[in-house]
Amino acid sequence: MTLAARAHAHLSEAALHGNLTHLSRRAATPLLLPVKANAYGHGLREIVTLAARHPDVWGFAVATPREAAQVAALDTGRPVLLLTPPTPAEVPVLADLGVRLPVASLAEADALPAHARAHLKVDTGMNRLGARPEDAAQVGLRLAERGLLEGAYTHFATADEPDLRFAHEQLRRFHTVLDALPATPQPLLAHAANGGGILSFGALPGMRLARPGLTSYGFAPSHLRATLPLRPVMTLTAQVTHLHTAHAGETVSYGGLWRAPHDTRVATVGIGYADGYPRGATGRAHVLIAGERRPVLGRICMDQLMVDATGLNVRLGDPVTLWQQEDLTVTDVATWGDTIEYEVLTGLGERVDRVVGSG
Hints:
Elements: E1 7-12, H1 13-27, E2 31-34, H2 36-40, H3 44-51, E3 57-62, H4 65-73, E4 80-82, H5 90-96, E5 101-103, H6 106-111, E6 118-121, H7 133-145, E7 149-153, H8 165-180, E8 189-191, H9 195-201, E9 234-246, E10 251-252, E11 258-259, E12 264-269, E13 286-289, E14 292-297, E15 305-308, E16 319-323, H10 330-336, H11 341-346, E17 352-357
Helix pairs in contact: 7-8
């Protein structure tokens, strides 16, 4: 007997492929798709398998060596780039898997095995990782001399903001480095644009890849949402696990924050903050149940939350929608929880089954 999950993240292949097509066309380059953090909570295996079928996806970008190994093991035939520095002991293991490695110093360049392929990481103002522009060309030259230089990249800090002046300055610094690099046997794979960069700038001169993160999954900054017809890839549902009546004057959940003004039919739903639904949304969250938008009652629990189902035809096992593509979205949930879509999506736990659909 298979024991079913109580919550399901339904993934739309059509939405994902549509987003990737729009983003690739706007960037006028193939895509290096970020699938870090379990593909932004959508499921690493599921998203990599779906995206590998898309003709505009050049490869995948990850944040940790373990993620790199997981994607490499899926054997999609697409390159994998590790975005953050590995430890010295991890370098030969990753190189043997064909993972492209980030390099930001002469010591890192010299430590690479001869069969490695490297992307020069340039810090143009994010001040997180990478070689400073005044040092980066020398590192790139060392990589080129060893025949290991495949690409170079930087990361915008403010490309998703209305004021793009600093993003333009970052791009200028990056081009200064690119112009100083020697010619390589194959055209250098330069990439800078994240999702905000693609939406703000479109095609960037000299760039051969783009790295749209959350935009690939259907989300963009509010002032850029009309730029492309992006669709959220995920709909989240959970089951009704219990039905009962809270009588007038009784409270619901921890702390007694909500008190029934009258006899209230309560549906308990099998999802909570351990699954990634934000506890901070307490007192503000709504869900869709039996076709109606209803409030969540009282404190959101670790494994459950309670919903007002008064007057609705609800049975045990019925699905409740926590978020969907329109009307009740991840953006709404993030707003109720005083956070951002990134945190809500990447916090979606392993108890939530990822289910792929075509729609």
